[in-house]
């Protein structure tokens, strides 16, 4: 049997926890378990699948939260772990919408079942009775009957008072004569569904509704409304970032001494990228000793300096601004592969806070940010090797160009 848990990476910080699947033999109680924290991830998965007996001398006692117990299938447990990583709710009973939240409709009994049942209920409520069938259409009349009805109708009509009434009567008679023919019904004029030409000038840059030639007018308007809604949300998010930036730069300054913060971004990013461990420790001491204003301003500066449309690209952009690859090659997230642990630094909270401000609508994005940091740290040696290859190629091309110039000069 296995157990699905939430493992606390740092006991001091309650938010730093990640889902994991461990055997029941590793659990000490409902709050603690034995866990090979210093081992490789592949080794930990191997031990968990084979139900390895804990080594109390090498393993650590870690804090956990039990999510689900007594899972008899390891593959099914992995699926639950991946689902827990993306969503806090594992089962559909807690969902507000979707599967598991459909109300069961009680089947209504027909009138025949009421009469055929042998129950003691004698009163039948009319509101529970089935709806009656719609009325059948009347039988179509013959031409002679229609002709007699039209004559009787014209006999009862008073003579027209003016020319306008005569026109109305002629129109009525024409309509009735056309309807008297069998199997003929008047067809109303339908509005044209084809789109006309746009009246704006071609120089005006806009998303034209009339470009949807193969679609109806309502469908084209629907596409334009969706695009307009996306543009409005983008403008709202940009306004929010501008407000945060302005408030963070002017909140601590008195009114007569306020100055323009044109170089504020360069001021806070002047010490980056960090190239040595001593520079990293200096930033750590600054974050620990300074008040929250420095941290908040650094976070807001990273929000505006970073680029990307998703969480991973924004995280990569921030790490590229703050650290050099020569420094990151000595670190991993938890200290695997005989490297130094990167998760213990205070600057990790700055990175996570900046990415969260960049995507305020995505609340549960901490694990995605950590996974992006882990992949960026692991690829640092590869990026260094690629840079060296590019330098060698550029030097080789320069030497070839110099040799060609010498040949031409001779």
UniProtKB/TrEMBL annotation:
Question: Segment Disordered: which positions?
Answer: 385-410
What InterPro entries would the database entry show? DUF4806
Identify the residues that the record assigns to the DUF4806 domain, covering every copy. 272-348
Q: Which Pfam families match?
A: DUF4806 (PF16064)
Question: PANTHER family, from UniProt?
Answer: SI:CH211-262H13.3-RELATED, SI:CH211-262H13.3-RELATED-RELATED
Protein's name in the database: DUF4806 domain-containing protein
């Amino acid at each position: 049997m296995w157990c699905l848990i939430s493992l606390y990476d740092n006991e001091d910080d309650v938010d730093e926890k990640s889902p994991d699947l461990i055997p029941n033999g590793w659990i000490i109680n409902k709050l603690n378990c034995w866990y090979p924290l210093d081992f490789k991830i592949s080794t930990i998965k191997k031990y968990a699948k084979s139900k390895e007996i804990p080594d109390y001398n090498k393993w650590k006692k870690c804090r956990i939260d039990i999510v689900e117990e007594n899972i008899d299938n390891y593959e099914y447990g992995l699926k639950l772990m991946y689902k827990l990583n993306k969503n806090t709710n594992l089962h559909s009973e807690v969902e507000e919408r979707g599967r598991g939240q459909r109300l069961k409709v009680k089947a209504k009994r027909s009138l025949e079942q009421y009469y055929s049942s042998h129950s003691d209920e004698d009163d039948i409520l009319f509101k529970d009775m089935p709806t009656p069938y719609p009325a059948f259409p009347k039988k179509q009349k013959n031409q002679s009957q229609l002709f007699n009805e039209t004559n009787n109708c014209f006999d009862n009509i008073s003579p027209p008072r003016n020319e306008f009434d005569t026109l109305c009567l002629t129109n009525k008679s024409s309509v009735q004569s056309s309807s008297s023919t069998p199997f003929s019904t008047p067809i109303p004029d339908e509005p044209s569904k084809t789109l006309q030409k746009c009246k704006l000038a071609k120089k005006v840059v806009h998303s034209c509704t009339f470009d949807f030639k193969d679609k109806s007018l309502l469908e084209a308007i629907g596409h334009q409304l969706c695009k307009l809604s996306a543009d409005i949300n983008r403008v709202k998010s940009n306004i929010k970032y501008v407000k945060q930036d302005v408030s963070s730069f002017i909140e601590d300054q008195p009114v007569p001494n306020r100055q323009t913060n044109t170089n504020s971004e360069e001021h806070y990013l002047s010490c980056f990228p960090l190239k040595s461990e001593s520079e990293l420790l200096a930033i750590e001491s600054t974050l620990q000793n300074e008040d929250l204003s420095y941290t908040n301003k650094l976070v807001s500066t990273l929000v505006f300096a970073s680029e990307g449309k998703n969480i991973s690209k924004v995280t990569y952009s921030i790490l590229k601004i703050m650290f050099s690859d020569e420094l990151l090659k000595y670190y991993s997230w938890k200290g695997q592969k005989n490297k130094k642990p990167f998760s213990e630094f205070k600057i990790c909270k700055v990175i996570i806070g900046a990415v969260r401000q960049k995507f305020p609508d995505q609340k549960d994005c901490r694990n995605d940010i950590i996974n992006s940091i882990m992949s960026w740290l692991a690829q640092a040696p590869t990026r260094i090797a690629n840079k060296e290859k590019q330098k060698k190629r550029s030097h080789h091309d320069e030497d070839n160009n110099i040799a060609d110039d010498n040949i031409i000069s001779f």
